[in-house]
Amino acid sequence: MRSRRRSVDIRRLLAMAVLFVLLSSMLVHYDLAWQERSPYPATGEVQAQYEDHLGERTFHWFVVREVHDQRVVIESDPLVLTIEKDLAVEEGELIQVYGVLRPEHRFEPIRVVDRDPRSRLYLLGISVFGAVLTLLGFVRSWQFDPEGLVFQRRGDD
Amino acid sequence: MPDLLTHVLVAYVLFALATWRFDRLPHEYVPLGMVGAMVPDLSKLGWLVPIPPEEVLPISFAWAAFHRLGPFLALAGIAALCFERRERLAVFGVVTVGGFSHFFLDALNARADRLVPPYFYPFTWWRPPTGDLWVSSEIWPSMVALLPAAGVWFVTTRWDHFDR
After folding, report:
1. Is the minimum CB–CB distance between B124 and chain A shorter than 8 Å?
2. Cβ–Cβ contact B135 with A under 8 A
3. ipTM of the complex
4. pTM of the model
5. Which of A49, B67, B97, B115 could form a disulfide with B40 if both were Cys (CB 3.0 to 4.6 A apart)?
6. Is there a contact between B112 and A148 if contact means CB atoms under 8 Å apart?
7. b/e code B83-110 from CB counts within 10 Å (16+ = b)
8. How confident is the model at residue A2 (pLDDT cuts 50, 70, 90)?
């Protein structure tokens, strides 16, 4: 009985190891493959060879660095662009911009989606609350069996 | 993405209603569905880790990939293996459905290029159009999700009370 349990556990560990290797491979592969597959050039590439990308449409998340009348400076490390338009954004705000690359690092926006700069703290706070709520629900329903190294329903001893 | 609270509340409503409808789905599976709805947001851990992976690891990886179908299914599989054999298939199914609810809600998010990221990786790089319903910082999705969740919680606790 004990040896059967051990062999089952070894199979379980093996299956976990296979899934872990598969997961790690996908995390690494996605990083490499998306650079090739993305319809938009990487910010580093645009910054290095700006003239080659003139007229191209691109999409990125940017941090708003400066806001002036009819001029907003945005940055997506290392790319710095200027939008010559009055946008209702604040310094430090994270915005998504889809637009066309124009000469002298000007960016002609087709669409801007902005986010409240205070939202990061709100999102973090409310997300931690959601995670704690879920964890409490889980702990109330399931317990860890140290002998079998598995979670089992509470009251199923 | 809507905030994590919205995701877990939606999963709570879905699975609590499912336990009402299907006797074979015990109430212990409700928080498992909520855990499944949290898993794709492991991609946000990158926000909290200030050092890029390549600075501490010999190879780089993308945090965003946690929010893609293949890595999510691998994680759901690992999670299922942490439970007793008789529970594993059900755990995998419930965690997966919870995760799918997360992907669906995130696909409704507004994006400047109006395209959803390649959520179906590694099966396809296809990017469907977004629902464009909300921006992630908006409070109203969690408020809207809170109402049915509170209603379901109220009925569930009353129901348990009367069952006794």
Report:
1. no
2. yes
3. 0.89
4. 0.89
5. B67
6. no
7. beeebbebbbbbbbbbbbbbbebbbebb
8. low
Closest CA to B136 of A89, A1, A114: A114
Query: Could A122 and B8 be called an inter-chain contact, meaning their C-beta atoms sit closer than 8 Å?
Result: no
Q: How far apart are CA A131 and CA B1, in angstroms?
A: 15
Backbone angles phi, psi at B62, to 5 degrees: -105, 120
Residue whose entry in the numeric block shows the structure tokens 């569905």 = B33
Encoded amino acid at B115, one letter: L
Q: Please answer yes or no on whether B77 and A15 come within 8 Å at the CB atom.
A: yes
Tokens representing A74 are 């945005």
Strands (E), B10-147: none
Mind listing the pLDDT tens digit for each residue in A3-49?
Answer: 555 555 889 999 999 999 999 999 999 999 998 899 999 899 999 99
With contact defined as beta carbons under 8 Å apart, do B111 and B133 qualify?
no
Name the 3-class secondary structure at A17: helix
- Residue B76: enclosing H or E segment and its boundaries? helix B69-80
**Total residue length of chain A:** 157
Which chain A residue has its CA at the smallest distance from B44's CA? A124
Calculate the average pLDDT of chain B: 91
Which two three-digit tokens encode residue B81?
């293996």
DSSP A80-146: EEEE-S-----TT-EEEEEEEEETTTEEEEEEEEE--TTHHHHHHHHHHHHHHHHHHHHHHHEEEET
